[in-house]
Amino acid sequence: MGDRKLLEPDVQFIQTLGERGADTLKKCYQCATCSVVCPISPDNKPFPRKEMIAASWGLSDKLVTNVDVWLCHQCGDCSAKCPRGARPGDVLGSVRSYAIQKYARPQWLARAVNDPKKLPILFAFPAVLFVVLGLITGLMDFTPELRHGHISHGMFFSSWLVDMIFVPSMTFALVVFAMGLKNFITDMHEAAVAEGKVARTDLNWLDLIKAAPKVILTILRHDKFSECGENKERATTHMMVLFGFIGLFIVTGVFFVVLYGSMAWFGSYELAWHSPYSQLNPVKWLANVAGIALLVGALVMLKNRLFKDEKVAKSSYQDWALIGLVLGLAVTGLGAEVSRLIGAATVTYVVYFVHLMFVFCLFVYLPFSKLAHLVYRTVAMLYAEYAGREEALKKAA
Ligand code: SF4
Ligand code: SF4
């Protein structure tokens, strides 16, 4: 007789999954239809049926360290075909959300970001911070056009103040991610080796990084999304939002370098090349195209969520919070620019201020929110590629 193992269900875990859209997981009767129809599930040790068992038994440790949970792209094919309406796609989505919260530090902030009751405080916090820092440093000017003769976001909310707030915010997000990802990879590796899921049993960080080009190309081309059946059009929306963010990060980086480079060159802020930049500037074109891509992508996401069949996919607070953030960033970003161009001084400063609040929420709350899946999934795919998840399966087949 084999060794007996006493399973200890984590009831709190099951409850949390339920709150995040997996309230149907107990309906599963293990028919395995989901594993058969999943377009990206491998033949050996397929998902998501085994994850449905683990979830219904409350095996949180087994699930949060499971690389397969992150290979799922939540296309919904399995949920659409599930004869019991157990929505396995949503169950895996809620496990990912739980894992993000588990690995993020500090835990109190992770809990707050995932608690709808805390949203007003989290959103109001940057407003208070901006005003306090602006008043202390004198780097906020509420009527800059009276002194400088033109409307300028940089004169209203100084670039110094922006960088004083956002450089530490970005650093905070990077540190939180670095700490969480280190534990995530280590746990995932130990679990994959123990289950015999991977061909490679050592963990070499340099080799792991070497797998990055292939994985990043797969992500940028959205190869996995194109294998979906039910929600094939999701690839376009996802691409618009992803490339919108990438475009805006490039624009921010270029203008950051231009501002501080020219300031160092000329030795003065007044002489430096700062905003507002000409609409003929190619970097500005990229900013506008990226902003529009973000807006359109977010609107289509909103429409899809509003009209989604709840039997196939249910939206959780984390889903709505993500759409709200992306939409808020796009609307206020474009709104600040348009209102500046038409000369509405007060409106443009208010909208720009709110835009900066959204940017603060993006950076500081990113490692705790659903958007962190971009980073965690990339790392899990990197690990699967490095460790030879596919190779192990071919050998085992
Ligand atoms: S989730 Fe649905 S399709 Fe998958 S095993 Fe359970 S009942 Fe079958
Ligand atoms: S949601 Fe799509 S990718 Fe994820 S397990 Fe279901 S069928 Fe597979």
Percentage of residues assigned to helices: 55-70%
Provide the domain count.
Answer: 2
Largest sheet: number of strands, sense, barrel closure: none
Mean pLDDT: 89
Provide an overview of this structure:
The chain is mainly alpha-helical and 397 residues long. The protein contains 20 helices and no strands. The longest helix has 36 residues, at 159-194. The radius of gyration is 23 Å and the shape is elongated. The two termini are 27 Å apart. Residues 38, 40-41, 47-48, 72-78, 88-89, 92 line the site of one iron/sulfur cluster.
Output the keywords.
397 residues; mainly alpha; 2 domains; 20 helices; 68% helix; binds iron/sulfur cluster
SSE topology sketch:
Blueprint: H1 11-22, H2 33-37, H3 49-56, H4 60-64, H5 67-71, H6 77-81, H7 88-103, H8 107-113, H9 119-137, H10 144-148, H11 153-156, H12 159-194, H13 205-210, H14 212-221, H15 234-266, H16 282-306, H17 317-341, H18 345-365, H19 373-387, H20 389-396
The protein binds iron/sulfur cluster (2 copies).
One iron/sulfur cluster binds at residues 28-34, 49, 52, 82, 84, 86, 88.
Would you summarize the structure shown here?
This protein has 397 residues and is mainly alpha-helical. It has 20 helices and no strands.
